[in-house]
Amino acid sequence: MQIAHLLRNVLSNKQILILNTVNASKGVCISELVRKVKEREHIPDSTLKFNIYNLKELGLLEFNENGNEKEVRTTDLWLLAADVLNYEK
Fold this sequence. Notes:
By secondary structure, this protein is α+β, with helices and mostly antiparallel strands. Helix 3 (about 30-40) crosses helix 4. It is built from five helices and three strands; from the N terminus they run ααβααββα. The chain is globular, with a radius of gyration of 13 Å. The protein has one domain (about 1-85): Winged helix-like DNA-binding domain superfamily/Winged helix DNA-binding domain (Arc Repressor Mutant, subunit A, Orthogonal Bundle).
């Protein structure tokens, strides 16, 4: 499928990992998300934060203020992309 090929070329494995972690965590804050992925995959904080903000710019993540923390959620656009890529929601 051409759309799946396009998405695989646009999104890195790290970005897909972040999106799937957010989806599985339901309402995780940015600092907790970075900690979870860093512990599991040994990716530097700066790389994770860079990718998180890029995913927000792409419209695949959204942030909601929750006190002093920003809660991260996937958007409907990611759910559509995940369906196309056959990734688990």
